Amino acid sequence: MDYQTDVNVGGPRMRPVQERSDHTALVVGGFLYVWGGYRSISGEEVFFPSDEICIYDMRSSEWQTRPMEGDIPPSLSGTCGSYLNGNMYIFGGCNDSGHSNQMYCVNLLGEKCIWKNFTEGGESRPTPRDKHSCWVYKDRIIYFGGYGCKQIRDVHPNSFTIDEASWAVIGNALFRFWGWNNEVHVYDPSSNTWTEPHTAGSSPTPRAAHASAALGSRGYVCGGTENMMMDLHCLDLESWTWTNIVSQSAVPQGRSWHTLTAFSPSSLFLFGGLNLFCEPLSDGWVFDLETAEWRQFQHPHQDKPRLWHTACLGLDSDIVIFGGSRDYRILMDTIAVLRFPSLGHCSDVLIFQTQPYSLFRLCEDCIGKNAEILEKQLSILPLKLLEPIQKKITFFRTTMETDKKITRT
Questions:
Q1: pLDDT tens-digit profile of 218-242?
Q2: pTM to 2 decimals?
Q3: Which of 86, 308, 309, 336 has its CA 20 to 30 A from that of 344?
Q4: Of 347, 356, 308, whose CA–CA distance to 329 is shortest?
């Protein structure tokens, strides 16, 4: 079911963002862009419209919504979004009609957001899937894993694990299977072509709802296995060689539907997810690639578990978490085995500070928090400083109002 909203064709408009899960999010400059996903209305899971994108100003904490036009994709959840040369690319995903393997692109930096469909002509496309991940490297997008359907001729035991539940769902239609894969596919936007490189080394087991991050010429994958084991793998994006990274410390409990974000040349930040007992998690961890050790990350959001949220690298190496679900329930579709964490969808933005702030940032925050006391002095600030300070004031006022609303509910 699609969720419809009023669209202002004339341009962006201010509007509180609505809670959602399984959306796509990415950061460009000081803005967080959020597209797609789904929410619960009267106990029913509904998809957000695909002809709009929500934009969060990380400096002022204000949201706006921009209309989109062109070759508008279907409403989707579980799609994989990436940013390359001013464009957002989305591939795959699912909705009430099943899984997708379509590719769409939209320029986020122009006056208008105009979608283009690059599905046609893209031969050797991967089979339909969702809950996959991707890395961007050398102007190409590299996709890994996911859950979806294949015809029997496309099923390879080493790269695809059949979901036994799909047998009961598809009945006698044994030419199609649903399950998890560990395939690597490369998309080149400049030529609209797909390739599937031959990988060496010890490949991860097939998986979906895992987490991934990229650092330089390496892509990292963790969790998301059928038994929710917390393993960590690295793919060299030059040689296409897999390496299983063996931890030299205690390992976080296994999980799916979590996030992994690179925030320094040797550090990965892990947050949230769902453990083997279907319990939503709120713990944070940092993996040091130089020592191969995990350490637990202390943060102020321990009371806010999340799964199927998004995580992006924000300003000053902050990790920006948006949306997701705080609890879990399985819904089964009679055609395509769609699993949704539902109820308890969230719309708040969680900020995780990973590095010490600069003196300038600390001064901005101090003024923003104490604007009422410093009101007379603000008028004498140079215009170049006044604009960011005004955004900081708005940020802290909005954050306080949001916290009050959450406390009341």
A1: 999 999 987 778 999 999 999 999 9
A2: 0.90
A3: 336
A4: 308
Distance of CA 204 to the CA centre of its chain: 21
CA distance 63 to 53: 10
H/E element, 365: helix 359-369
Q: Which of 314, 18, 334 is nearest to 169 (CA)?
A: 334
Give residue for tokens 């490189």. 197
Taking residue 8's Cβ as centre, other Cβ atoms within 10 Å add up to 13
Task: Tell me: pLDDT of 278 over 70.
Answer: yes
3-state helix, strand, coil in the chain (%, to 5): 15, 40, 45
Token pair belonging to 250? 């205690």
Q: Distance between CA 254 and CA 79 in Å, rounded?
A: 23
Q: Rg (Cα) of the chain, in Å, rounded? A: 21
Residues 6+ apart with CB under 8 A from 292: 245, 246, 247, 248, 249
pLDDT range class, residue 174, cuts 50, 70, 90: low
Q: Cite the DSSP H helix spans in 68-223.
A: 165-170
Max CA distance (Å), the chain: 76
In this prediction, residue 11 has a pLDDT band, given cuts at 50, 70 and 90, of: very low
| Count of CB atoms situated within 10 Å of the CB of 17 | 18
Q: What is the mean pLDDT of the chain?
A: 89
Q: Which residues contact 55 (CB under 8 A, 6 or more apart)?
A: 12, 31, 32, 33, 34, 63, 64, 65, 66
Per residue in 179-209, pLDDT (tens digit) is 999 999 999 999 999 999 999 999 999 999 9
Spatial separation of the C-alpha atoms in residues 29 and 315, rounded to whole Å: 8
The 8-class DSSP code of residue 323 comes to -
End-to-end CA distance of the chain: 27
| Nearest partner of 148 among 131, 133, 164, judged by Cα | 131
